[in-house]
Write a structure and sequence with these properties.
about 300 residues, alpha/beta, six-stranded parallel beta sheet, 6 strands
Length: about 300
């Protein structure tokens, strides 16, 4: 009887230290990292996505980074297909794939046997909703609450691109997206899983978020966004709706001061981290590790031990 292939997973909130731990464990376990970040997939979006630098990767192969053009749409279905292909490649080399990231829908698309609707696109429908949303912000989310309440609860009301896609699927198929994608908690995984969640006291997490935002600014976030716009990237492109980018775009458009934009990034990131934790805690398969309880090497020791036993 063929056993399922192993897959180690590291999840948690933004600024929680997932990348550093994933790299350390990859060095110890002979692994390669599969990124699960919906912004890091885009080329050129480096600073705002906190994409690991070459030095931070420490020679460990990273997949699902810089694999999509920021001017194009990149769906969860796209991610699922390409991430699973990358995992298969890691296995073929005799290495351990370590899926690490904070985009819950991306993680669940890989680790659970979910199917994603093959519904196409209706450009006229999309353009009409873009127009409506500009005239009455929040109207798309209100419509989704009526069409697919379950999916609406999974999304932030300001995540227009995903809200629009859910509306489009309902429009094209007559069925809610939530019904078509299934329930990840009841779905059997195609892999032999070990899922580690990183957590910490709220005060520490918020302090780390503050530090990350400050670091992004000092690293040149404003110049990165300006460069993307100067290169012709539409400010309404899905790739630029992520945290940090949309707020800086508003600043560059003269809609707010830089100080206001920075404070909004901090506020929105704190809210996002809270939603991430809520999302990941729904999955009973996750074993949680408190980052504040020990040093990083000791934390890596604990998760390494967990992975080795769970993936036997």
């Amino acid at each position: 009887m063929n056993r399922k292939q192993p897959l180690a997973v590291i999840v948690g909130p933004t600024a929680g230290g997932k990348t550093a731990i994933a790299v350390e464990l990859a060095k110890r376990l002979g692994g390669e990292v599969i990124s699960a970040d919906s912004v890091a997939v885009y080329t050129g979006l480096d600073i705002g996505s906190a994409k690991p630098t070459k030095a931070e990767r420490q020679g460990i192969p990273h997949h699902m980074i810089d694999c999509a053009d920021p001017a194009e749409s990149f769906t969860v279905s796209d991610y699922q297909q390409r991430a699973r292909a990358a995992i298969e490649g890691v296995h073929s080399r005799g290495n351990l794939p370590i899926l690490a990231g904070g985009t819950g829908l991306y993680v669940n698309a890989v680790i659970s046997d979910l199917g994603f609707t093959d519904a196409g696109r209706d450009e006229a429908f999309r353009l009409e909703w873009v127009k409506r949303e500009r005239e009455l912000p929040g109207s798309a989310y209100a419509a989704l609450e009526k069409a697919d309440q379950k999916r609406a609860k999974e999304l932030h009301r300001n995540d227009f691109q995903r809200v629009l896609r859910a509306l489009e699927v309902f429009h094209l198929t007559g069925r809610p997206m939530s019904e078509q994608n299934g329930d990840f908690q009841k779905s059997e995984s195609p892999y032999r899983l070990a899922v580690a969640g990183l957590t910490m006291p709220r005060e520490l997490l918020y302090a780390r978020i503050e530090q990350r935002v400050d670091q992004m600014l000092s690293n040149g976030l404003v110049l990165e966004v300006q460069g993307l716009l100067d290169a012709g990237l539409d400010p309404n492109a899905p790739s630029l709706q992520g945290l940090g980018y949309k707020e800086i775009i508003a600043y560059l458009a003269g809609k707010q001061t830089l100080e206001q934009a920075v404070e909004l990034i901090r506020q929105n990131t704190r809210r996002f981290a809270k939603r991430q934790l809520t999302w990941f805690r729904r999955d009973a398969r996750t074993v949680w590790f408190d980052v504040s309880e020990c040093s990083k090497p000791a934390l890596a020791d604990r998760i390494e031990d967990f992975f080795e036993h769970a993936l036997q």
